[in-house]
Design goal:
By secondary structure, the protein is mainly beta. It contains one helix and eleven strands; from the N terminus they run E-E-E-E-E-E-H-E-E-E-E-E. The two termini are 22 Å apart. The N terminus is likely disordered.
């Protein structure tokens, strides 16, 4: 595998260096099966920041403001922010930090740690990275078992694991980053 994204027509001219997520053109979402798996609750986070460092060893960092979650249901959102789930008063951020990132063409395979609600779990995900107008377009999907993060509240087993996590990000070259 290559250590940088240069092997496909979509990513042939990607410059090494630091790329920053543009929140105005990105989204971070989650989907959780509810009601014994019959309904999917979808939510998103409104506040987050992230970087992708391309070099000999690619590094990804994504930080999310846990209190910014929104499922279009104020009562549910309040409960999700409580100690039963994200415990945003004590743990205001959710973070993913890659420990291993390998790139091959427009694919980026990441392994790292997800920190949420005061717990940490290993997480693996596959991302697709493309060049669009000199910027990077990244899409990643993975699954995380929220029970491993201590989010076990579920009356009569109504909330199903795992949760689907989706990141669609537009990344721009960080000012002063090397080319």
């Amino acid at each position: 595998m290559s250590s940088h994204l240069i092997n496909s027509p979509n990513t042939r001219s990607v410059d090494q260096g630091r790329w920053r997520l543009d929140p105005a053109r990105s989204c971070v979402e989650f989907h959780v099966r509810n009601f014994y798996g019959l309904q999917t609750v979808k939510g998103r986070f409104a506040s987050y920041d992230g970087t992708l460092e391309l070099g000999a060893r690619p590094v990804v960092l994504l930080t999310i403001d846990a209190a910014s979650l929104d499922t279009d249901n104020a009562k549910r959102d309040k409960h999700l922010r409580s100690a039963d789930f994200f415990d945003v008063e004590r743990h205001p951020h959710i973070r993913f930090t890659s420990s291993i990132a390998t790139a091959d063409g427009d694919s980026l395979k990441l392994r790292g740690q997800l920190d949420a609600a005061g717990k940490q779990i290993p997480l693996e995900l596959d991302a697709t990275v493309r060049i669009v107008d000199g910027e990077l377009d990244l899409e990643a999907v993975t699954y995380a078992d929220q029970r491993e993060l201590g989010m076990t509240w579920s009356p009569l087993g109504m909330v199903r694991a795992p949760s689907k996590l989706i990141v669609r990000a537009r990344l721009v070259r960080e000012e002063g980053a090397r080319r």
